[in-house]
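TASK: fixed-backbone design
INPUT:
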């Protein structure tokens, strides 16, 4: 820390992103990226935008918003695009939380939520999950706080049903409920259809997972026009050109290529079922995941040890050091051949240990 660094950030404990090593080739199952390339249509659209890089990007994201409004059945003023969904999540903390509206989220959830609260100097509570790692919706009834729920949750992959989230919305009419649907396309129910019924609902989605665009950084918020207007105020007070032209264009292509998107999501769901079954045969407990990752534990090998042993063998998975889940690992679902290699390697490892 330099002597110039403001005291207000001195105690900040930043988010630790998953490793992105460049030293060797790994089978990368640690940061929930898509194993598939971005759609050809996205590449075509982005290449055309490349020709116009001398100009600022469109701060209104006109073409992208129009396409997304059609795809999601929303009005254009019910959408706001951002630089990854991390950005809109941060905007939501800034816009909808303060001393009178503390943030509330599960104690085991996306690790960025407490960091967003901290950097914005906002009060927050972390609500324990049930023993089976599911969310008890009644914990959020009449809570008087701004609620952040990842659905499916991360790192567990467990999803609430739309009807359960609706109960939370009904029981908190005076508070914003943010549903982070980063992984929804892999098997959970989106809350976007509830937007016209509940003015306190903000749904957040990303192009990083199901649309293979993690490196392009594109996410969005969908909600009542007034909520979106509030978030726009934050965007235009920080960085109006928050999305670059190529990403914006690629996003349009990715949305138009519905067939490719659906095919990829369905392959991931099949590979998730395969991996779950094989790992259970090897003695793992595996959460019932609706996401593009699974959360696993083995009685004979610790989470950290499994992570390190696999890394040495060229496979990266995610180990989170939080004590309550340190026996677990989060494994991203990749291509079938990669999951087969993973299973084979784990089997050998367990045999060696015996
Ligand atoms: N929400 C959740 C639950 C996530 O796991 C992630 C990915 N780390 C994000 C949001 C942010 O994704 P991105 O900024 O790439 O859209």
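OUTPUT:
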């Amino acid at each position: 820390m330099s002597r110039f660094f403001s005291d207000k950030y001195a105690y900040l404990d930043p988010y630790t992103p998953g490793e992105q090593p460049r030293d060797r080739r790994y089978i990368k199952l640690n940061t929930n990226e898509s194993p598939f390339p971005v759609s050809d249509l996205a590449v075509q659209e982005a290449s055309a935008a490349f020709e116009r890089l001398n100009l600022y990007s469109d701060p209104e994201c006109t073409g992208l918003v129009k396409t997304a409004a059609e795809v999601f059945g929303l009005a254009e003023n019910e959408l706001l695009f951002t630089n990854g969904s991390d950005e809109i999540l941060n905007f939501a903390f800034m816009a909808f939380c303060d001393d009178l509206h503390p943030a509330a989220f599960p104690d085991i959830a996306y690790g960025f939520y407490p960091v967003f609260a901290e950097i914005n100097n906002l009060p927050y509570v972390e609500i324990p999950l049930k023993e089976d790692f599911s969310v008890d919706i009644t914990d959020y009834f009449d809570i008087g706080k701004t609620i952040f729920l990842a659905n499916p949750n991360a790192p567990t992959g467990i999803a609430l049903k739309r009807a359960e989230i609706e109960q939370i919305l009904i029981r908190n009419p005076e508070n914003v409920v943010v549903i982070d649907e980063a992984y929804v396309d892999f098997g959970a129910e989106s809350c976007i259809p509830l937007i016209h019924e509940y003015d306190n609902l903000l749904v957040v989605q990303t192009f990083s997972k199901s649309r293979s665009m993690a490196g392009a950084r594109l996410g969005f918020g969908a909600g009542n026009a007034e909520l979106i207007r509030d978030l726009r105020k934050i965007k235009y007070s920080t960085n109006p050109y928050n999305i670059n032209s190529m990403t914006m264009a690629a996003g349009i292509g990715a949305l138009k290529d519905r067939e490719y998107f659906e095919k990829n999501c369905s392959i991931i769901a099949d590979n998730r079922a395969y991996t779950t079954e094989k790992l259970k045969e090897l003695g793992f407990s595996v959460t019932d995941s609706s996401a593009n990752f699974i959360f696993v534990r083995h009685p004979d090998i610790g989470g950290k040890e499994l992570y390190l042993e696999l890394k040495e063998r060229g496979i990266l998975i995610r180990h989170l050091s939080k004590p309550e889940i340190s026996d677990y690992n989060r494994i991203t679902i990749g291509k079938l051949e990669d999951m087969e290699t993973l299973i084979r390697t784990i089997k050998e490892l367990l045999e060696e240990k015996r």
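COMMENT: The first strand starts at residue 27 and ends at 29.
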